[in-house]
Fold each of these.
Amino acid sequence: MNMQTTPDEMLTVKEPAMEEIKTDVLVIGAGSGGLSFAAGASQMGADVTLLEGHKMGGDCLNFGCVPSKALIAAGKQAQAMRTGQKFGVTPVMPEVSYAEAKQHVHKVIETIAPVDSQERFEGFGVRVIREYGRFVDKDTVEAGAYRIKARRVVIATGSSPFVPPIPGLDDVPYETNETIFDLMEQPAHLIVVGGGPIGMEMAQAHVRLGCKVTVIEGGKALGKDDPEMAEVVLKRLRAEGVEIIEGAQAERVSGAAGAVTVHTSQGDYSGTHLLMAVGRKANIDRLNLDAAGIKHDRAIRVGADLRTTNKKVYAIGDVAGGFQFTHVAGYHGATVIRPILFGLPAKARTDHIPWATYTEPELAQVGLTEAQAIKAHGKHAVEVLRFPYHENDRAIAEGKTEGLIKVMVVKGRPVGASIAGEKAGELIGLWALVLANKLKIGAVAAMVAPYPTLGEISKRAAGQYYVPRLFENETVKRVVRFVQKVLP
């Protein structure tokens, strides 16, 4: 018996065998959409496997919605100390510890994290594997040491900050939403490239925490919102000290840590720190989508039913393109429960999806803006109902009188609502309900709102629909005068 080993045999290393898993549904990504689906499907009896190669809870919990709102809250506390004079409270300059404000952010994340934890979802019966996944064929995904074959696959990998290929940017340190919340050193002067919701929220939070802030935007700041409503917010931010440069395309970046310059078509702007906030890109690079026959460009192509070109695979949330909001991902996750678990048809709508920018004042929208409604239905078919915050008693009492609401109505039915003002993100929920259920304006006009609340703003706006029909109508007046004469 020959016990010698040849050199070729010595060089041959056997790959460990991959563990085979068969599952009803494989969910790729443990953000809002993936977790919503996984929890519901598992509790309804499906065998669910969930892959997550990074952090449970995804972008929203760890780098987006949650930390940004926590930092905004810290900024509000600082701002309240500066602005008490009108209430008889002597204003003082707050002593801000930027590092402690960031510690507050991380405490908030830690408090919410158990809701999205691996342990909680394993408690629901979900098999959780902490690996990235890649397709090897139409219904098989490899993830680490696992080879997973699924009857259905839900891709919920979300999105990441898009960093444009600006010359010089690779040689200069910069922050994105994935790194800014770990920055403990207070920026003396923060340059924000991008005047969308993320950029404006971070700009106001930082200026309130004692930083100098310059926002550079290639187009119009908050350009996706109604211009009249956006101006309410921008006026406040400028008044608080945020420098907003519009129509200034970033052409080149230079400098080093602590001294960064953004060269634009309108001039050069220098600061100590740079935040890139120009948009998002779908996380599709790791997935090997072509192997599964899934068509894609910058995002995965889906139909109204959220199904991809591979009939066994669905895509939900940011990775499917369209609205990039956490609540949309959750809505998508609930939507695909119906076809995947019960074989029943379901389609995702977009006309009732609200969104909000959490500056102060807030900016919120659902459905069509005024311009969009006029374009879709014609100028003469659209009635725009308006009501200002400065006529609301609660807003007056709290000194929050900036802003207004606009409701776009076609044939008695709201098709959109725009709100700029205090708690706009809370108030827009009523109008999302109206649009989701295709209610008429009378449903809101008939509502009895508690007094005094900001909620009365919505009711008063709805009431404007009846002003020309009841109070400015000569026929109504003649009928009333006649009835008053004949009544005993």
Amino acid sequence: MFPARRQRRLRENELIRSLVRETRVNIDDLVYPLFVVEGEGIKKEIGALPENYHFSVDMLEEEINELERLGIRHVLLFGVPGRKDSVGSEAYSENGIVQRAVRKIKSLKREIFVMTDICMCQYTDHGHCGILSESGYVKNDETLVYLSKIALSHARAGADMVAPSDMMDGRVQAIRGALDGEGFERVSIMSYSAKYSSAFYGPFRDAAGSAPSFGDRKSYQMDPANTNEALIEAEMDLNEGADIIMVKPALSYLDVIRRMRDNFNAPIAAYNVSGEYTMLKMAVESGVLGQDAIMESVLSIKRAGADIIITYFAKDIAKMLKGEM
């Protein structure tokens, strides 16, 4: 008779609210991005990403210990190489920065699931995500060969999951075939299926040194106006062998996450990207917003339908959930 009154009663006490809460963010939902750089003794805050750091491989143990203490068990590695060339050879070097970082983390014998970003932009001297033709056009099919080489080198180093972010057509099938061909059937693939050509990547490009030296990436990243295209891309990736599909960015594309959830019975990841993080972090630090805005924003991603949330807020969220903030 009085549904509004019933809802009011259920809101009156936190213990009651917790019983009927529809959506929850858990620490195991979170993936924390890590940036690894060449050198020794380096732990340097990234200016555009407050409270996130560049780490040299020898400095990873302290950070992994902190993540373990907070209960964060999933990381996504990005490498910043010391040398770049036209084919991004450091990306698939057996002694590359990501490969060494994976081996280091695995040597610590911690319960950490290691994901690695598979792309070429921070490794190429032109900053694009693939092999270029003489006219400056990205050659899709030739790029697949290099992406497969990168994925194999990460798997050999001990990566648990590879995450192709290049948006080349057919890359999931190529990588899956390469991994299976060398006996890495258990290495899974999280595909950046709906990666939009977004204005919210700026801080990341500063952190990874991956801005293109000319032009843009609109020919292979998605138009922010399109959602049907996201479903097409995700379906193709699943058919090619992707284990997890991803939407990137997250907060400006909650509708896309929801459409993915409504259309696919597959795990969905969402990347709460650098620009989204920095805007909100600065608002909280300046006092314009309270820190509850951090949890609310991440909760919205989960509520939209994401199973996995890749976020620079992972440590903040873990501390909130553990009562440390």
Amino acid sequence: MDSAKSFKLYNVYAHGTYTLEVRIGSEEASANLILDTGSSTLVVQSEDYDGKDDKYLVATPFAQSITYGLGGWYGPVVKSQVSITCCHDQTLQLNDVYISIALREHEHGFAQADGILGLAYYKLNKAYDLTAVFDQAAMTYQCFPSPVYEQLSTHSLPEFKSFIRQYPREYLTPYFTALAQQGTIANQFAFSVQRSSIFHPREGMTELELKQEPLNQGELVVNYPRQRTDLYRGTFSVIKVLDDKYYNVHVESIQVGEHTPRSAPLLKHINRRFRTNGIFDSGASGIALPQNLLEQVLEDLIAHNENFSKLLEPYYTFEGIEESVPLDALDLSQWPDIHIHLMGLYQPRVTLTLKPWHYWQAHAPDHGRASFQFVSLAHWPNQCILGLPAFAPYYVIFDRRETEFGAIFIAEKV
């Protein structure tokens, strides 16, 4: 446990989030999983890993049904071996990992990725014990795959979620927590990523060509991320994490250029699900704001330059797809920085500064187009989701050892 370990990430498969290749089970089934600090479950779709030939597989009586801001899935939980290969061809291996096998997923589930690797805490890794269902069917859950799940897979996502809630609930140990508990690595990890949307510098690029583009690559660094001094410069600022439901933070305000900062609204009710008015979420390809705060940000951008009005018109609403404008209509030198002010741990305030090329992604979602990275989610509470555009300017360390809930360290990225 004496050095930082780095893993190659690609922003190609998941429509604007980074994936890591893992190997599962005795047959080393390959899966490209979305790295998501906004969830805790390791889930892979059944087309990529069904467990049938896995000699390491241990069946469990658990099932999971997880929903996200967009998308969701359900399926049985098994245990098996998971390994990932470092940039220097070292393998990080963990046995008896809880893995969910997605039998059914929402149309906005994993895009072209094969599943999700959640990096948050156990409170988001909720499962239900279906022992009573197996007993009623006079079957044992230890026989996998089970006919019980063939019957249950006919449920819609809402039906299955409602069905399993009647059974005993447990919280399963997430992958990264198990990795740290094993003593293989220190309880911290870091992201070094280039952007949020997939970069299309030329028309008609193949998947392989997109992967070879440096701007579509990144790194996950585990163990001792501060050792990677080649990835950052200067000192770290420390953002206070207020709860470990997610990586919960407090967003004070958002400021467009030199305009007066706009206060971020508080949650109307502190509840078991949301906890605070902000989260750091590597599984989000944009920055989601409450509708009224988004409108204020757009208003300040237009006040900065009235010519921005037409370009920003598509972004007052969000339909679940990446809207874009012609790239040649943008002069990024005319756009101001946007500052996100957050509660600090060792200082009152930490400011994230997004340059125009962070919140406008060039050559996205296609060559010659550009997409604005601030959105608002319908039916979401007063919570800011700080997705990948907030990561891109910085080397971001999630140090889970710091204080009760951990802390987020940021330094200027090289």
Amino acid sequence: MSTSTSPCRTIALFNQAGGVAKTTLTQNLGYHLAKRQHRVLLIDMDPQASLTKFMGLIPKELDKTVADAIIDELPLPIHTNIHSMDLAPSNRILSGAEMQLVNTPLRDFRLKEAIEPVLSEYDFILIDCPPSLGLLSYISLVAATHVLVPIETHLKAFEGTDELLQTLNSVRKANKKLSIAGFVPTRYAKSNSADVRALGAISSQLSAWGKIFPPIPRATAFVDASEDRAPLAVYDPKHPAVRLLEQIAQSLEVLT
């Protein structure tokens, strides 16, 4: 049981680009926070349901998903104690839910309202956003207290950052308290000069917006761990990336 006296921090992991390790970070950072005695809820807001699969559930077999909470205002369906974390899962029905949201009254606050009844039960809620600037990402950011941005150490990926920052600014009209928890460079290969240059660009151009965390290396162990439905620290406790993930989780503890 957590001894934290801080209010629940709701962190959206968001980048409109795909393949930047959002889901991997959501699962692994959640695990490290849980191991540090925090109560953690993961919310899968991506219709692709990768996080739901990573956590060992089968999306097409689920009776209830986060879609029921945001469309029909039912309680969040929470699966408990999966690798010491809880999960509100997703499946492809969420794609249709996004279409329905377009004409839903007060749509911007549907996820925020779904989360509110359980806020007192958790120290951290991590939201895995879809790789787009659509409504599902928007309502996730409206529900969040913080946004953590995974960003691939590739110059092409870095070029989309202006659009991402503009999105965050527009979200602040509905959620004035949203703050940037930081940027996590991902899929980094220090032997690749292009990756080194991209990391330099990320550090110099984004540090004014938020903390730049140590880069997470490109590693097949992450894929192997997800296929094994386990966080990296469970699958391969001695992997060098485990220490980096632990450092990021520790930094998240001091968010206010």
